[in-house]
Design brief:
This protein is mainly alpha-helical. It contains 20 helices and nine strands. The chain has two domains: 295 residues, no CATH class; 142 residues, no CATH class. The structure holds NADPH dihydro-nicotinamide-adenine-dinucleotide phosphate. This is 7-dehydrocholesterol reductase.
């Protein structure tokens, strides 16, 4: 751990402090206590409209060949009523409920019952029991990192079925896509509601709970920081990684299988989507231990935003390019395909190297080489809720000297590459880059707000040393 600690006298612990020159409550850096009207309005908007947005996109593909404009025109001109669209929408089926229950149960089994063996034979892979970051209450959680193994087992079984056992068609996901949407919603709402009740009545760590007093904010952003059942079943790690991200590559494979079934071939654009997103997913699992130090695990509480988001938003909207290509099989020219591949790979390189530099820097406490040189950094300190003082460092060289979130820039380049595979006939596949730009810009601002509360004047020294957020010289 890069953070070193020293105890403060107990009487200093819970008072408001002028920490590092910035007046702030010491318990504030985990999440905002007071809900401003803008946050509340955004939350109400998302709670009401995010499920409708997902439905609108998936329905548009099912009923309008992925056109987002045609259903609007139909409704505005009175050509169709909402009830017509709704009546044509496939309902929840026993088959979908069975598939979904088996799928989630299988992922729970892989997560809980099979300790990691990959780290024993894969050089460089960090798996098995690992520690997370220090929580605002000063707790360090342990996690069983076995996502790569779950991903490998799931995909080996998938291919074994597709090429050998033939127990079900590889198009099964596409063929049940809307009935599965209802199942994903049921799980997403159930887990978010359960997490809220648990936060009130039997939290895993009461000191890491935060109550704003606003029901909607607490439901959306979560009360508990790291809700768990038993010692190992961690909600955040499971829901983000397993039903969400393991499914991502399977969903894309199912789309490719559907293209094969419908057109007798898989287009190069579909292969590109599968390969580029596959690299991103594999990277996630290869670096699952590193993921414990990212914002989702380190800073966000577990509420509807993560619970429903992981069950519904992620698998349904992150895979829109593959879905679109089933309806519009695009065969790219060689130059375009190579250009998109290069953009995707360069984006991935920037994303990975930036994340790697920070991880290496933090793991070695700055005793490493970044681009062949000793890293430059700013010393900083912060306090946890129990008054313990920690020291940390903010790197100002490598990609972290170019911009404060160059990892997001690489992520955005990769996201654009996915969208470009679909050509320019429809706007639906471009939803992803628009969404990622909003998500990562908002995340950047949110993270910086939190870092300012945490590090105070040290953070200001850092932002003077590295003035740009995402694009050097521009933003
Ligand atoms: P970061 O990995 O950028 O982590 C931000 C944290 O890093 C800060 O809160 C701070 O934490 C620490 N930090 C900030 N600046 C420095 C510095 N100069 N030197 C050392 N440490 C620093 O953010 P995320 O967790 O949001 O993102 C991780 C990756 O995941 C990104 O590449 C992002 O693109 C990707 N991502 C993808 C999403 C998707 O849906 N596809 C969604 C979200 C993220 P501390 O308190 O420890 O100092």
């Amino acid at each position: 751990m890069a953070a070193h600690q020293e105890k403060k006298p107990s009487e200093e612990r819970n008072r408001k402090s002028t920490q590092n020159g910035t007046r702030t409550s010491q318990v504030q850096w985990g999440r905002a206590w007071e809900v401003d009207w803008f946050s509340l309005a955004s939350i109400l908007f998302l709670l009401m409209f995010a499920p409708l947005i997902v439905y609108f996109f998936i329905m548009s593909c099912d009923q309008y060949q992925c056109s987002l404009i045609d259903p609007v025109i139909d409704l505005l001109t009175g050509n169709k009523y909402l009830s017509d669209i709704w009546n044509k929408t496939p309902t929840l089926t026993y088959r979908a409920a069975g598939i979904y229950t088996l799928w989630v149960a299988f992922q729970v089994f892989l997560y809980v019952c099979i300790p990691d063996f990959c780290h024993k034979f894969l050089p460089g892979y960090v798996g098995g029991v690992q520690e997370g970051a220090v929580t605002p209450a000063g707790v360090v959680n342990k996690y069983e990192i076995n996502g790569l193994q779950a991903w490998i087992i799931t995909h080996v079984l998938w291919f074994a079925n597709a090429y050998y056992f033939h127990c079900f068609s590889p198009t099964i996901i596409f063929d049940n896509w809307i009935p599965l949407l209802w199942c994903a919603n049921i799980l997403g709402y159930a887990v978010s509601t359960f997490a809220m009740i648990k936060g009130y009545f039997f939290p895993t760590n009461a000191k890491d709970c935060k109550f704003t007093g606003n029901f909607f904010y607490d439901y959306m952003m979560g009360i508990e920081f790291n809700p768990r059942i038993g010692k190992w079943f961690d909600f955040k790690l499971f829901f983000n990684g397993r039903p969400g991200i393991v499914a991502w590559t399977l969903i894309n494979l199912s789309y490719a299988a559907k293209q094969q079934e419908l057109y007798g071939q898989v287009t190069n654009s579909m292969i590109l989507v599968n390969v580029l997103q596959g690299i991103y997913v594999l990277d996630f699992f290869w670096n699952e231990a590193w993921y414990l130090k990212t914002i989702d695990i380190c800073h966000d509480h577990f509420g509807w935003y993560l619970g429903w988001g992981d069950c519904v938003w992620l698998p349904y909207l992150y895979t829109l390019q593959g879905l679109y290509l089933v309806y519009h099989p695009v065969q790219l020219g060689t130059a375009n395909a190579i250009g998109i591949l290069m953009l995707g790979l360069i984006g991935y390189y920037v994303f990975r190297m930036t994340n790697h530099q920070k991880d290496l820097f933090r793991r070695t406490n700055g005793n490493c080489k970044i681009w062949g040189k000793k890293p430059e950094y700013i010393e900083c300190s912060y306090m946890s809720v129990d008054g313990t003082k920690y020291h940390s460092k903010l790197m100002t060289s490598g990609f972290w000297g170019w911009a404060r979130h160059f990892n997001y820039t690489g992520d955005l380049m990769g996201s654009l590459a996915y969208c470009l595979t679909c050509g320019f006939d429809h706007i639906l596949p471009y939803f992803y880059i628009v969404y990622m730009t909003i998500l990562l810009t908002h995340r950047c601002i949110r993270d910086e707000h939190r870092c300012l509360s945490k590090y105070g004047k040290d953070w200001k020294r850092y932002t003077s040393a590295v003035p740009y957020r995402l694009i050097p010289g521009i933003f």
